[in-house]
Amino acid sequence: MAQRTVLAILFEGVQSLDVTGPVEVFAGADVLSPGAYRIRTASLDGAPVRTTSGLTLLPDESLTAAPDPDILLVPGGTGSLRPDPRLVDWVREHGPRAGRLVSVCTGAAVLAEAGLLDGRRATTHWAYCDRLARDHPAVEIDPDPVYVRDGHIATSAGVTAGIDLALALIEEDLGRDTALTIARHLVVFLRRPGNQAQFSAQLEAQTAHREPLRDVQRFITERPGADLSVEALAARARLSPRHFARAFRAETGMTPGRYVDRVRLEHARRLLEDTADGIEEISRTSGYGTPEAMRRAFVKALGTPPAEYRRRFRPATTP
């Protein structure tokens, strides 16, 4: 097995987790498969850099001395939003030579500034998608996915999405078992598929101010298979159905029905990805009642039925 070199770029104002998250994943893979990856870090002049959190990172070398890597990792952080022109020039020259060019969070801004995302589909942290689209109209920005792969270039969303993308690359290189072992050690999901939304329903919706409504949100998340009709939820909140529906939307920014639909879909997706449970059982525990009802929900939201979703996003082998 040929060793793959991973080079992480460091710069002033880098987000530390954008670097250390993926690096820890690749380092874990190298422990399980010795010699699989050689991890290096480099800054423009080889000098230490200060991260956004105040930590100081010491690179292995300068970018001018670094060989062209198999995987070039461009992290985000405040320093990536107005990148040093020398850094942009280096990425413009060396990025196309990398086997795979990967950005985490706002690292996509460096790739865009270098012209490497023109005509490509990409993503970044949700808070900067509009800015990236405005500054680089030649780039097709998709604000929803956890990560996007377009040819040899992969861009990922905010911070921990870099871990998801690194796990996906390791699964591609070394297999699911290795990626799963690393994920378990890091106590994270094996992977969120690239088309998984950056926000779960719980994150996308605002947390309600009033405790009865917060209790309803928790109840929905913990028991997606329960009776989650507006009438049942309103009774739990001790409100009339009409008052409850109006208050829930006002405080969360989402109707009760929409919130329930999102939670049930996410629950079913996790079970399809991470378990061997049958479609009928998943449809029941996720609150759909029947496989046909779940199939309709998946086709409407994702454009694919549950069985096909499982085939695409969960290998046949059971962990």
In short:
The protein is α/β, with parallel strands linked by helices and 319 residues long. The protein has helices at 16-32, 78-81, 85-94, 107-113, 129-135, 161-174, 176-186, 201-204, 211-222, 230-237, 241-252, 256-274, 279-285, 291-302, 306-313, and strands at residues 4-9, 37-43, 49-50, 56-57, 61-62, 71-74, 100-103, 121-122, 140-141, 147-150, 153-156. It has 15 helices and eleven strands.
Task: Give a written overview of the molecule.
By secondary structure, this protein is of the alpha/beta class. It folds into two domains: 4-186, Rossmann fold (3-Layer(aba) Sandwich), CATH 3.40.50.880; 200-319, Homeodomain-like (Arc Repressor Mutant, subunit A), CATH 1.10.10.60. Helix content is 48%, strand content 12%. The protein contains 15 helices and eleven strands. The protein starts with a strand and ends in a 6-residue tail after the last helix.
Arrangement of strands in the largest sheet: 5-2-1-6-7-11-10
Percent range for β-strand residues: 5-15%
What sort of overall outline do the alpha carbons produce when their principal axes are compared?
globular
Order of helices and strands: EHEEEEEHHEHEHEEEHHHHHHHHHH
CATH architectural label of the largest domain = 3-Layer(aba) Sandwich
